[in-house]
Amino acid sequence: MKHLLRTLFGLGAAAAAIGFMCYHLNSAPELHAAVRKGDAMAWLRADFNLDERQFAEIQRLHENYAPSCEEHCRMIQEAIQARDALRRTNGDDLVAAAEAERTLQQLRATCESAITVHVQQVAAVMSPEDGKRYLALVLPKIANFDHQVAPDLKLEGRPQH
Amino acid sequence: MGCGVLPLAIPMNTSRDKLSETLQDWRVKPPSDPGFRAAVWRRIGQQGEATWTAYLRAHTAAWAVAAVLTFSVAGVAGRALAQARVEADRETMVVSYLVELDPRAQAILKQ
């Protein structure tokens, strides 16, 4: 019995060591560090193997894109407010409500096109393989924003920029 | 017959008395050995090791199969856990990144 327990203990210890080693070999310390800091750019740099030049170029693209992002954001907010105001004050006017909704959807589509162009520019700065992987990660979420990103925002109340 | 026994009995008693006296006077004084206890425990330990080795040898096939299975499960589980964490963290970062980029997300947050 003593030998059985000793053997089981040794086997368990060795298995734990192997499991721990495999965990560490397959983990991504830079990614986990970026998540802890909440730093999306650090994630981009680590996960897509960006060198200094690529990172600087992508930061420049983001900075150039930021004003149009804010402008789109303001226009969408105004369209949402207009639609909601119309629903509150003139709920029976279906034509006006449909028009307000259509305006909002057009703005959202314009915004989706703009952000798609932007991420394609970002991907072009990366190596072809990393760029392809980046687009495979972000494009479906941009296309399915209402199902994949918006619910998270509504539930988690993320910080604003 | 009785005459034959008596003369023999007397010398025997005498020799027993002498033996008793000798034994009473006998004192054993072995030289002290400071390493005696350590040597005993070492021998006991060696016996235990040998026994465990013998146990393992007797069950080599069973323990080898158990070791291969356990190590495989441990390795696969470690890898799967790491990958699941990487995927979850990546998902978190993609959403966080898109929230910064996507005006639709900003519009929701500012409502």
Largest sheet properties of chain A: none
Note the run of SSEs of chain A as H and E.
HHHHHHHH
Q: How big is the Rg of chain A?
A: 24 Å
Highest-level CATH class of the largest domain in chain A: Mainly Alpha
Mean pLDDT of chain A: 84
**How does the overall form of chain A come out from the CA principal axes?**
elongated
Tally of distinct domains of chain A:
2
How would you sum up the major sheet of chain B? none
Instruction: Give me the count of strands of chain B.
Output: 0
Shape designation of chain B: rod-shaped
Task: Give a verbal description of the structure.
The complex is a heterodimer of chains A (161) and B (111). Helices cover 86% and strands 0% of the residues of chain A. Chain A contains eight helices and no strands. Chain A has helices spanning 2-26, 29-37, 40-47, 52-89, 94-125, 128-143, 145-148, 150-156. In chain A, helix 4 packs antiparallel against helix 5 (94-125) and helix 5 runs antiparallel to helix 6. Chain A is elongated and about 85 Å long. The N and C termini of chain A lie far apart (64 Å). Chain B contains four helices and no strands. At the A-B interface, helix 1, helix 2, helix 3, helix 4 and helix 5 of A face helix 2, helix 3 and helix 4 of B.
List strands and helices in order, with pairings.
The complex is a heterodimer of chains A (161) and B (111).
Chain A lengths: L1 H25 L2 H9 L2 H8 L4 H38 L4 H32 L2 H16 L1 H4 L1 H7 L5
Helix pairs in contact in A: 2-3, 4-5, 5-6
Chain B lengths: L1 H24 L10 H23 L1 H42 L1 H8 L1
Key words describing this protein structure:
heterodimer; A: 161 residues; Four Helix Bundle (Hemerythrin (Met), subunit A); disordered C terminus; B: mainly alpha; 4 helices; 87% helix
In short:
The complex is a heterodimer of chains A (161) and B (111). Helix content of chain A is 86%, strand content 0%.
